[in-house]
Amino acid sequence: MLCFAADNAQQLPSVENQSASAASSANKTTKSGDKMAAARRNVFRTLLTVTVCFVLCWISNSVYVLIYLSGGNVKLAGPFYVLTVYAALGNCIINPFIYCIQYKPFQREALRLVRGRILGRPDAVGFPDTSFTSQAPTISPSYDQ
């Protein structure tokens, strides 16, 4: 029993080093785990928002068509039907705004795109990179026969 205690006492420093390195590794894992959890929450929130907007935009048109198909006294050419179609099409317009509100990288790139198209800034998307100054060699046709 005494030999066992002495043997374990000699291993104690290596166990402390292992626990310190495990704690450091766990801290790094926790940081990356926090980022992953935040990303998952952001994706879930975005999907929930897109789904709710989809349902709200399409429910009136779906119910109206369902009433029409079940023999109800509704007109597919009436103003309310046209309003339901516009609401359904509005879903396509809403989605980019949802993504813009939810995602920081999307916000940055959308802002960069708008700056380039509206303000004409060369650091924006769609402008050629002018930092590359090398010119391609010119080949002139030869008329030797």
Q: Could you walk me through the main structural features you see in this protein, from its secondary elements to its overall organization?
A:
This protein is mainly alpha-helical. It has a domain at 36-123. The protein is built from 3 helices and no strands. The chain is flat.
Helix content: over 70%
Low-confidence stretches: 1-16
- Shape, principal axes of CA atoms: flat
Q: Please describe the biggest sheet, giving its number of strands, its sense, and whether it closes into a barrel.
A: none
Radius of gyration: 32 Å
Quick tags:
3 helices, 74% helix, flat, mainly alpha, disordered N terminus, 145 residues, 0% strand
Please outline what is shown here.
The protein is an all-alpha fold. 74% of the residues lie in helices and 0% in strands.
Break the fold down into its secondary structure elements and pairings.
Elements: H1 2-69, H2 79-102, H3 104-119
Helix pairs in contact: 1-2, 2-3
